[in-house]
């Protein structure tokens, strides 16, 4: 039985214009003229016998019928793109594009990636780092890792790792010094991350020492720099338990106090529903779940 389909060029023009809310931007993406996109849309609306857009002076907006159609057409185009990519990669390594926060990547993901590559030599992971909202990067990556949970339309979210935050320092920093209770921090340098300015004040308040004045403070631009500073004996940093677990286990860092602990991230992988059945994506998500379950338990 033959399929009843509208003109495919009109479908491409509709999908691009609907997604971008602009005939001009759709024309740029498809490398055609504005007039060509407009004609394709008119042809599609004539084929259906009703409008798909509300037209204003300088913009277009999907009407209810157009919105329903885009939901189906967009998913179909995603599946076609995925099938096309899989055909093009046959006989070659599958490229898996992953985006994750920088500190998480440096302290947790990269040290463990070799295990995934050994188990999946036909999958080439290309890792990029950022903290941008998922909505801004989702079209560029197959898997996005962020703290959460966040609700992202059309995306599947899986939690694979959680942590809390506690002070950490190098054992060499403690030689000849006493650091047994929070008040003792008055004799040490506290390492602050510019991206998390409330971390130390919140912890000190929870520890019952909100007015503590440390010997020195040192503010570094990124969170991972404070952890490196702690490793190098510069001072005491706030350490996410999941991201410092290897250093604690191998004695490079210690927790001078058992608590209190600040709640921190729950890490999630975010994948487009249309791509959730991709074998490479499924393999990486399964690996994250298994690897995260083996992480050191949170310190209460």
Strand order of the largest sheet: 4-3-5-10-6-9
Order of secondary-structure elements = HHHEEHEHEHEEEHEHEHEH
Helix content: 40-55%
- CATH topology (level 3) name of the largest domain: D-Maltodextrin-Binding Protein, domain 2
Characterize the overall form: elongated
- Quickly count the helices: 10
CATH class of the largest domain, please?
A: Alpha Beta
The portion of residues forming beta strands comes to: 15-25%
| Gross CATH architecture of the largest domain | 3-Layer(aba) Sandwich
Any key phrases for this structure?
transcription, 300 residues, two-stranded antiparallel ribbon, D-Maltodextrin-Binding Protein, domain 2, alpha/beta, LysR_HTH_N, six-stranded mixed sheet, disordered C terminus, DNA-binding, WH_DNA-bd_sf
Give a brief description.
This protein is α/β, with parallel strands linked by helices and 300 residues long.
Write the layout of secondary structure elements.
Layout: H1 8-20, H2 23-30, H3 34-48, E1 53-55, E2 60-62, H4 64-88, E3 94-100, H5 102-119, E4 123-129, H6 134-137, E5 143-147, E6 155-168, E7 189-193, H7 199-206, E8 216-220, H8 223-231, E9 237-240, H9 241-249, E10 262-272, H10 279-293
Parallel strand pairs: 3-4, 3-5, 7-8
Antiparallel strand pairs: 1-2, 5-10, 6-9, 6-10
């Amino acid at each position: 039985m033959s399929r009843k389909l509208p003109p495919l060029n009109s479908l491409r023009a509709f999908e691009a214009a609907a997604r971008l809310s602009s005939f001009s931007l759709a024309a740029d993406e498809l490398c055609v003229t504005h007039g060509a996109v407009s004609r394709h849309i008119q042809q599609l609306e004539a084929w259906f016998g009703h409008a798909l857009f509300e037209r204003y002076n300088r913009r277009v907006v999907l009407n209810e019928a157009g919105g329903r159609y885009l939901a189906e057409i967009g998913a179909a185009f995603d599946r076609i793109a995925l099938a096309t990519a899989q055909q093009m990669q046959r006989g070659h390594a599958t490229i898996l594009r992953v985006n994750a926060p920088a500190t998480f990547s440096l302290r947790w993901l990269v040290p463990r990636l070799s295990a995934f590559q050994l188990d999946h030599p036909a999958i080439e992971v290309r890792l990029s780092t950022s903290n941008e909202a998922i909505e801004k990067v989702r079209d560029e990556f197959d898997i996005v890792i962020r703290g959460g949970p966040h609700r992202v339309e059309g995306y599947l979210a899986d939690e694979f790792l959680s942590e809390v935050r506690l002070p950490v320092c190098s054992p060499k920093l403690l030689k000849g010094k006493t650091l047994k209770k929070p008040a003792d921090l008055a004799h040490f340098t506290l390492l602050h991350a510019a991206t998390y300015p409330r971390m130390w004040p919140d912890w000190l308040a929870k520890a019952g020492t909100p007015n503590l004045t440390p010997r020195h403070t040192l503010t570094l631009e990124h969170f991972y720099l404070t952890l490196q500073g702690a490793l190098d004996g510069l001072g005491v940093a706030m350490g996410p338990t999941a991201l410092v677990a290897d250093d604690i286990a191998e004695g490079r860092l210690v927790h001078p106090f058992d608590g209190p602990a600040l709640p921190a991230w729950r890490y999630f992988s975010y994948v487009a529903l249309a791509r959730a059945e991709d074998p490479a994506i499924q393999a990486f998500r399964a690996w994250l779940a298994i690897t995260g379950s083996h992480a050191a338990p949170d310190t209460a």
